[in-house]
Amino acid sequence: MFEIENCYKIIFEAMLEESVFQSIAQRMQQYTGAGIAFVTGAGKVLACSCQWARLFPGSANKDHLIFEDYTAIFEKKECGGRYQCITPVYGGKRTIGYVVLMYENTKEREAIQELGGILAQNVRLYFEEEQKQYRINQSLKEHMVGWMLFEETISIPEEKQSCRDGKYILVRMDKENEKAGEMAARLYGIWNWIHTYEGKTEIFALLYRLREQDIQSVYTAIEAEKREYCVSEVFSKLCLCRDKKNILRRMSQVKAYQEMHAMRREKEWSMWGMYTYTDWLIKKAGLRDYSVEQLILEDEKNHTELYHTLRSYLLCGNNVTMASKMLHIHRNTLIYRLKQIREYMGMDVNDNEVSRELLAFIMMNDIAGRSVRSKTDDED
Amino acid sequence: MMKIEKELPEIFEEFGEQRKRAFLEIKEYKDKGSSVVGMYCAYFPPELAIAAGAIPVALCSFAEETIPAAERVMPKSMCPLVKSSYGFAIEDKCPFFYFTDLVIGETTCDGKKKMYEMMTEFKPVYVMELPNSQSERGYEFWKGEVIRVKEYLEEFFHVVITEKMLRDAVHLNNQIRMSLKSLCEVMKLDPAPVLGEDVQKMVLGSKYRFDFRTTPELVSGVREKILKEYRQGKKLEKRTRILVTGCPVNGDSLKVIRAIEQNGGVVVATENCSGVRAISTMVDEDADDIYEAIARKYLSTGCSIMTPNDNRIELLGEIIEEYHVEGVVEVILTGCHATGAESFYIRKFVNEEKHLPYIAVDTGYSTSDLGQITTRLTAFIEMIQAERPGDKEIDMNCCYKIVLSGSNYGNSKQEILEELWKYTGIPIGEYDRYGRLLASAGLEQASREGADIKIEKEYPGGEGKIITCVMPGRSEKAAEWLANILLQNYSMKKQFSQEGEDSQPDYLWVLAEKSEDLDKIYDAVEKDGGFLGQLNDPEGKNMFVSCIKGKEDRNRLVAACRKCMKDLEGQIVIGNGFQNLSDKEENRRLQERVLRLAGEKMERGNIRLTENYYYELAVECISEQMEMDTADSEEINALYKDGQEKGRELCETLYWYLRMKRNVASTAAKMKLHRNTLLPRIARLNEIMEVDAMEGADCERILLVMELERKKKDRGGNADGWVDTCRRKEYEDGRKA
After folding, report:
1. Is pLDDT of B363 > 80?
2. Of A276, B81, B98, B701, which residue is least crowded by CB atoms under 10 Å?
């Protein structure tokens, strides 16, 4: 048995340390013999003692509750012959986190419950600090569903796929944008069935129960918002959420060389997004192309737009008609520019191989942000 | 020393007019009972006449006006000098000729010989027999002639010429010559102090001053005045320095000198018998045999009638060096065949040995060709100015250009300094903080020529210093300016290097399958010399190259490698030029990838360039990092609606069709299918996804997804087809349902 008074001392001492939660968890376990974990309202494991970690290694490693552990902890009272004592931490009127205690001896129940209460009171401020990064108030359960959909690698059990029918669209909002929370809220005006998942830097909104006939109107409505949403294509398998998340994240990494406040749709942006993986080539391995550099230099010197012209032309599959339409210039102008480009670069951009390599380099170059030009108007 | 009170232009004008005033003077002398000896050529020693108590006077021979009179008896094709001389004589237009008691001639050119013959009809003429070459026998013979003419003069004027009298006359003449020579030498200054025409007027006019004893003092006074004013900054602007050579120039033929000097040139010297040639050597006053000394001096005159005329070439070379001549103009009087013929040697000498431009002006005394001459000479001078790399009055902008372009091209300090030295002629040295010489140009010459004024500029922070020297006779300003430029450049470079400006040359890797290939390339490129970069010794299968200065440099390397690898089996990769040395290892890994990709791609040739693998690199890079399912594409999945076998075929077709930029012919060629086999498939693709109506960017996206799946398949992720089994199953399920 342990003395509650001594616990105060331990808490107080631990709070002087650098990593408060970890110190409390370790020392308290040493003293009381109970496994301890601090879990935020978003499912994040702030700290846990080694005993707890032994029981729930998945969550401990990821510093986040995994879905499996969530059900084990919150939906059952007992686990592995040990009892659970979960004390919610309240911030305002809401639960912002949980102190999870595990004990073997039922006689200790009351003492443990008291200890839970003391701990919850003392760590409240830290939890509140932690809570500030979230823009949307969601319950732990909702967070856990999001976590499961977007982060976990294991396939989702059939019964958990509650919104099985219909198709899905995933929308990503960057938290760098001050209005990310508002943007997420506005989505509710467009579609009723939305599940949001908030990460550290981004908010995802999964639109579900979409029927074939709704899809077009949803896209149009999102576009009409004129905000920086990254919107995926329609998909019909929940297991694709993680992939879609990745590609949307990549897409938003592409530096905006377009006008602001525009929706980015996967169809148009996924290639750019995929090319963000090539960062290494240019940024780390110093990949450069003298011919393209020369073209950019000439552009700067003469205030021309040859680089942009070349990119658009290559993106149009070397089709003069389409490229001139996209660039809003007469085809003769385009042909003249292409002649100039050929002169400056000393290569035939119409050659299939050359144009493929060039386009790849230009994509990488743009992604690496070395020569992104502000004024462009393709893909409109 | 005589104090010159008058202004220089006035003095020059006075000397120019001396001949006219001398008409009156000579009359006075004549009235006083002096004898007058007339002469034409520089071979006659006037000392003899002076010793005989007579006044030697050069007879008129430089005017157009008397030529028609001469042409009545002489062939028109004769040289104007002879015609003019004879015209003056026969028309009695030359007052000197009128007062002359005796004319001394020499057997110089054919025209003159005949002229003297013709003159004997109305004037006493004594003709000295001039040998045709300056050999020892010639000198011996000429000495005899000098003695003979002395005896003739004694007899003619009823005087006795003692050796003392002769030596006195020689001394006096030497002084006059010396003073004129040093006057001419003021033109060695750069920029020239006065016009060549003015000096010429002085030299020619001095012949008509009959108060010989005061002449040296007067000329020296003028020289002092010129130098004094020069020091005060009164000088000509920078002009092209021209040497006039050939036939004597005076009177009407001064038009050539005027044409030069009115069009941006300055005649710094005239190499002819009325210019430097006659005054450049002295008679040896201390010689035991004064007659021999006189003979040697006068016969050595390098007129073109001599054969061979080596003395002229020799003197010409000296003048070109001493007077910093930039171009040579030869004046050939029409009809002077000796000079005309000799111009061949002169041109050769000037062009090939002195590397200077040369022009020959064939003219007479008439002004009719003045326009033509002016045009030709103006062009000649402009050509020199354009060619001249370094204006001696240094254009500072050009120095900036040298420094900037030098450092931009990554030339070494030594190269830049040498170029500056070549251009400015200012010796420069750069020292480091410990006072060690880093680079220098022209410092040896500076110490040889005794340049003692040095301008030192310390680099900020005591990092070293720049030293420029002021060569003798050059202004300090330019040297100081140059030092400042270099200092600025130093600070600028420093600033750039702090800001990490990309003025540094690039690096690149060359990788090979076989290390022995690299050794061969290394040897070949090192020997070749066309490539300016720096090759490091190959380490195994890698070779690091630095100092790549852009595209051209790399292309040179590529060309060198191509040449070297022509007969070899292995493959090599030439990487891209990268800027930061910190990227070195990563870039090598990148090139290794290229080498591997190239091996997979199976192409002809064995030189691989990174720029041909951007796409492959990108695809690989993406596929490695991206989890495959992300590259999900509804379009591709839709292809499997028709079943697996059909779907794979369509996929294959779509892939190549997109890769070939939707060109049916090249797709068919690539897939080794007949066009007619291909067309239905494309029609099917159009049914499913309207591939022909897709935007280019869409095509690229789908193609990229397919590339990624291909990559995944290659890596053994799924040996079974294009699409993930699970997803294909889903579609098949969907179809059944």
Report:
1. yes
2. B98
- The pLDDT tens digits for A284-341 are 777 888 888 888 888 888 788 888 899 889 888 888 888 898 888 898 889 988 988 8
Q: Is the pLDDT of residue A206 over 80?
A: yes
Instruction: Report which DSSP code applies to B186.
Output: G
What's the rounded Cα separation, in Å, for the pair B70 and B89? 9
- Looking at CATH, the fold of the domain delimited by A140-277 is given as Alpha-Beta Plaits (3.30.70)
> What CA–CA distance (Å, rounded) separates A262 from A269?
12
Q: Chain B, 638-667: which have a CB under 8 Å from a chain A CB?
A: 659-663, 666
Q: Which of A88, A313, A140, A131 is nearest to B700 (CA)?
A: A313
pLDDT at residue number A370 = 54
* Domains by residue range for chain B, with CATH: 8-299 (3.40.50.11890), 396-499 (no CATH), 506-612 (3.30.70), 631-736 (no CATH)
Mutate to test the interface with B, among A168, A234, A245, A284 (most CBs of B within 10 A): A284
User: B42 CB contacts (<8 Å, ≥6 apart)?
Assistant: B273, B274, B277, B278, B298, B301, B303
The 10 Å Cβ neighbour count of residue B146 is 24
| pLDDT band for position B138 (cuts 50, 70, 90) | very high
Instruction: State residue A164's pLDDT score.
Output: 55
d(CA B666, CA B668): 5
The predicted complex's ipTM stands at 0.74
DSSP state of A99: E
> pLDDT, tens digit, for every residue of B59-77?
888 889 899 999 999 999 9
- Chain A 246-285, residues with CB within 8 Å of chain B CB atoms: 246-247, 267-268, 270-271, 274-275, 277-278, 280-281, 284-285
What's the angle, vertex CA B296, arms to CA B290 and CA B300, rounded to 5?
155
The conformational region for residue A81 under phi > 0 = left, psi -120 to 50 = alpha, else beta, is left
- Other beta carbons within 10 angstroms of residue A293's beta carbon come to 18
Per-residue pLDDT of B530-566, as tens digits, reads: 676 777 777 778 888 877 777 777 887 888 788 777 7
**Which CATH architecture best describes the domain A4-131?**
2-Layer Sandwich (3.30)
A328 — alpha (psi -120 to 50), left (phi > 0) or beta? left
Q: Please name the fold of domain A288-367.
A: Arc Repressor Mutant, subunit A (1.10.10)
- Residues 6 or more apart in contact with residue B585 via CB below 8 angstroms: none
Distance CA B226, CA B228 (A): 5
Looking only at Cα atoms, what is the longest distance across chain B? 151
Segment B594-619, tens digit of pLDDT: 888 877 776 667 777 888 888 888 88
CB contact under 8 A, B590 and A285: yes
Segments making up each domain of chain A, as ranges:
4-131, 140-277, 288-367
**Whole-model pTM above 0.90?**
no
Q: What is the pLDDT of residue B395?
A: 66
d(C-alpha B616, C-alpha B590), whole Å:
12
Q: How confident is the model over B428-436, as a mean pLDDT? A: 77
Comparing C-alpha atoms, which of B608, B611, B600 is closest to residue B577? B611
Taking CB atoms and an 8 Å cutoff, what residues of chain B touch A267? 698, 701
Model pLDDT, residue B294: 93
Written as six digits, the tokens of A239 are 């297991």
Structure confidence at residue A146 as a pLDDT band (50, 70, 90): confident
DSSP B69-102: HHHTTS-TTS-HHHHHHHHHHHHT--HHHHH-SE
Would you state the pLDDT for residue B689? Answer: 81
| Distance (Å, whole) CA A309 – CA B619 | 24
pLDDT, residue A119, reads: 83
